[in-house]
Amino acid sequence: MAQDKGIIFNIQHFSIHDGPGIRTTVFLKGCPLRCPWCSNPESQRKRPEPMLDATSKEKIIMGEERSVEEIINEVMKDIDFYEESGGGMTLSGGEIFAQFEFAKAILKAAKKRGIHTAIETTAFAEHEKFVDLIQYVDFIYTDLKHYNTLRHHKVTGVNNHLIIKNIHYAFSIGKEIVLRIPVIPKFNDSLEDAEHFATLFNELKINQVQLLPFHQFGENKYKLLGRKYEMENVKALHPEDLLDYQEIFLNHQIHCYF
User: Greater confidence, 57 or 3?
Assistant: First the structure.
């Protein structure tokens, strides 16, 4: 059953890093994962919540209920830019599958208007729902945080079985997809980890991956939310730190890039 309303926490116009061309990115609240390095901690809880404004330090409410029609009307304001640049709308979060019916309704409405659609997802979703939703999606960003189920569950709070199944499915049907590994110190950054990832990707016939070196971009948001940032004293990584890591994927005939 379609859901006309849901909770979002931002609509960002003129995005150039969330898919092809110039895009409007709609951020949905709610995520079942609790990755300690999350750069959008305000997205994790589904309900609106108080947060200090980064500039004024006054309390604001992060998250509001919006209808599909309101969102599409906002997205359509930039239609000329999409047509000129090959852009469109991106749904991000949070995790869009946390508001599955709402996310699907937005994507369907966008496709009816001829808008190119992209999603950013953890791929942690019931497989049937994943299959159902991505028929309305032109481009997918997703990631795999760890190849080992127990380690994945211990750090993120969920296992990786559905994630791997859904990623494999998306590749198998020829979806345009960018698969990423967030490379996190003392979690998945060893050369042994890279070897395990590469072996798994060979088994799944996945031949390309993007490496995302760990960064501290979200640190201040935790303070504004009154939460502890567990990665506070962890040093950021840079592409030059991961050349040996990258080389392992290349040796497995996997196109690996930053």
Answer: 57
Q: What is the pLDDT of residues 222-233, one digit of tens each?
A: 999 999 999 999
pLDDT at 3: 81
In-domain check, residue 237: no
Residue 160 in any domain: the answer is: yes
What is the 3 state secondary structure string of the chain?
CCCCEEEEEEEEEEECCCCCCCEEEEEECCCCCCCCCCCCHHHCCCCCEEEECCCCCCEEEECEEEEHHHHHHHHHCCHHHHHHHCCEEEEECCCHHHHHHHHHHHHHHHHHCCCEEEEEECCCCCHHHHHHHHCCCCEEEEECCCCCHHHHHHHHCCCCHHHHHHHHHHHHCCCEEEEEEEECCCCCCCHHHHHHHHHHHHHHCCCEEEEEECCCCCHHHHHHHCCCCCCCCCCCCCHHHHHHHHHHHHHCCCEEEC
Q: How many domains are contained in the chain?
A: 1
Q: Label residue 241 by pLDDT band (50, 70, 90).
A: very high
CATH number for the domain harbouring residue 174: 3.20.20.70
Instruction: Quote the pLDDT of residue 182.
Output: 98
**In the predicted structure, residue 244 carries a pLDDT above the cut 80:** yes
Q: Print the domain residue range for 129.
A: 3-184
Q: Is residue 243 part of a domain?
A: no
Distance of CA 160 to the CA centre of its chain: 15
**pTM beyond 0.90, yes or no:** yes
